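pinging the channel bc i need a second pair of eyes. not urgent but kinda urgent?? the chain im working w is below, pasted from the shared doc
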Amino acid sequence: MPYDKLSDLPDSVRDNLPKHAQEIYQAAYNNAWDEYKDPEDRRGDASREETAHRIAWAAVKKQYEKNGDSGKWKKKTS
């Protein structure tokens, strides 16, 4: 189901991503939740929730990356 607040996001998102990245995740997840409600719109036998999480992580990874040294997520620099 869609996330109303950042505090509703999964621990793996809240505990690892900066606030802005969490906002990206939330927006992408909620949009994908609506867009992929019909099973025929999803790839294979992926659930609606699984599809939304994949899309949300992909959206985050467009602007953020994991720092190799610290393992923390940081905004991409170009």
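so Residues 19-35 form the longest helix (17 residues). and The radius of gyration is 13 Å. — does that match what u expected or am i reading it wrong
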